[in-house]
Amino acid sequence: MSDTKTNIGNPASDAKVAHLGFLRQISLVSRAIASSPVGKNLLILMAIILIIIIATAYGQIRLNRWNKPFFDALSRRDLRDFLYELGVFFVIAGFLLALNVTQRWLAETLQVKLREALVRSLLKDWLFPRRAFWLANSGAMGVNPDQRMTEDARKLCELSADLGIGLVQASILFGTFAGVLWGLSSDFALHIAGVDYAIPGFMLWAAIIYASAGSLLSYWVGHGLINRNAERYAREANLRFSLVRVNEHVDDISLASGEEDERHRIEGHLVDVLRATRRIVWGHTNLTWVTSGFGWITIVAPTLVAAPLYFTGKVSFGGLMMAAGAFTQAQSSLRWFIDNFSVIADWRATLLRVASFRHAVITTHEPRGFENRIVYAQGEPGTIKMENLESLSSAHADRLRESEAVVEAGARVLILGAPGTGKTQLFRAMAGLWPWGTGSITRPRGEQIFYLPRGTPYLPRGTLREVLAYPLKANSFDAEAFTRALFRLGLERLAPLLDQTRRWDRELSQDEQLCLVFARMLIQRPQWVLIDGTLGSLDDDVLALVIDVFTNELERTAIIHIGGPGEAHALFSRTLHLIKAPRAAVP
Fold it and tell me: CB neighbours (10 Å) of residue 583?
């Protein structure tokens, strides 16, 4: 197996969207969430959370005011007032407890709803017709979209909800307690050398300066965590992809005795993950010097700042505790950035990954690099027409030798590819997946074309009945049709399993999987079938059975098969020729 390390999870692929700026990244994700059907419910949920936060702020204001009479009663040794204020405390605390529990439930509900909205929107964009194919062929971004839409989206939604609610709560609390601090120290004056220097609201300014210094220091020490987290997520994606790939190809690896080689490859990815994680560990360690240092100072800072009011006789002991409590609430709100910087860095990294994925999804319509394009048109039913058809890629430049080829309904046509020609590329061009080249393809309006690509067919996870009906609904067909199709294709042993869900791609041989696809054709009875070399891979007895089905039940179905000389058998009544184009391949 080839090493995929250079192809996936490269942080540089995420950096392509970083030039859009932070606000553009926010816009990309926000519009994805807003466009989801869940968007309106989210607005209602956020409005309820805002009301709870405001109610909590009111309760905390009441709790702060409670400090003065409580500690004044304590200083007077007034047992009656002390017990009364203690009862008031339990009422306020019970109110705040109920609000905190409700807010926690609403916050986690918001996380779930945000994830539902974001993933639904990303899935819709990604699985827009042909877009997943373009993305998969556009580079590293399309290799592991599962990581972006599962782990990254989940983490982004959880962090966004927690940080968003925390920021709103901190802002409301600061606005509330800023007024308290200003009122307590509005007439404060500092007496130095016999001169009074008025500092209106000095407690408020002290809280702002104290928190601002910590925020700036936190950013200076920890801003590198954003890129370090993004790199770690990219390396984790590499490791996960390698493990999944080994699991998907474990048969080939075991037969080749390649376990040791694969272990070394995976260990290489593990080393990258550990190296990136160690860089984050050092970043968190350095940041802890700031956050913990300010945390310890905060134990005495509120009392130190409020002490001048107490010693000048402007407030009682209860007033001192009230002022210290208000200072603690205000600077704690301003310290939100310090306390959450490592989480913010993690959030920025996941935002970058999800935003870069959505940017790639909504901007990747078709691969670039080719000037000429095949013209696709809808024509009359019963006819496929190809004129001067030539397909181009970086590896191939091939054309149909026949300048005009008209395939009528029910025809059986073999497109014979010369050695070295891009047969799969022609198949993709005829299917509309690869439009680069010249000429035109006119397809029948309103008629179903069944495409069967080369290699092991795709069997979706689901019941066998759903596999046979794919991509249509199983209830679109007569229930007996499934059983008849299985018996006709020699798969009668699977008839009792029609309503069971299994990993059919693991339980069935390649010939049996292909027979399932031909059984699907028998059930759906498409007007057209386009096949990329599959008939040549079938065993003789299976091929004979398939030809018999096409000759009898599907005699009205037109077949266009792209293959080599060994596949020219009696099923086909006409042959077209794919040859190398005289021009050089496009670089």
Answer: 10
pLDDT tens digit sequence for 197-206: 556 666 667 7
At residue 372, the pLDDT reads 80
State the Cα–Cα distance between residues 217 and 335, nearest whole angstrom: 12
Task: Count the Cβ atoms, other than its own, within 10 Å of residue 530.
Answer: 21
SS3 162: helix
**Nearest residue to 574 via CA among 552, 550, 558:** 558
Q: What are phi and psi of 570, to 5 degrees?
A: -65, -15
Residues 6+ apart with CB under 8 A from 383: 406, 407, 408, 409, 442, 444
Looking at residue 393, its pLDDT comes to 77
Percent of the chain with pLDDT over 70: 75
Q: How confident is the model at residue 186 (pLDDT cuts 50, 70, 90)?
A: low
**C-alpha to C-alpha distance for 550 and 535, rounded to whole angstroms:** 12
Q: Which residue has the higher pLDDT, 273 or 174?
A: 273
CA distance 60 to 177: 9
Burial of residue 391 (CB within 10 Å: 0-12, 13-18, 19+) is buried
Phi, psi at 247, each rounded to 5°: -65, -35
Structure tokens at 316: 């009682």
Residues 389 and 429: beta-carbon distance below 8 Å? yes
- Whether the pTM exceeds 0.85: the reply is no
* CA distances for 408 relative to 4, 100, 379, 502, 551, angstroms: 44, 71, 12, 39, 16
Domains and CATH numbers, the chain: 11-363 (1.20.1560.10), 375-580 (3.40.50.300)
- The C-alpha atoms of residue 587 and residue 570 are separated, in whole angstroms, by 39
Rounded Cα distance between 143 and 7, Å, is: 8
Alpha helices per DSSP H over 198-334: 202-222, 225-248, 250-255, 259-311, 317-334
**In whole angstroms, how far apart are CA 129 and each of 124, 136, 150?**
10, 13, 21
Question: Please, what is the Cα angle at 511 between 510 and 517, to 5 degrees?
Answer: 95
Distance separating alpha carbons of residues 32 and 356, to the nearest angstrom: 12
Of residues 302, 300, 305, 294, the one with CA closest to residue 212: 294
250's CB contacts (< 8 A; 6+ apart) are none
Q: Rounded to an integer, what distance in angstroms lies between the CA atom of residue 470 and that of residue 473? A: 7
Question: Pick the residue with more confidence: 78 or 190?
Answer: 78
One-letter amino acid identity for 75?
S
Return the amino acid letter for 265.
R
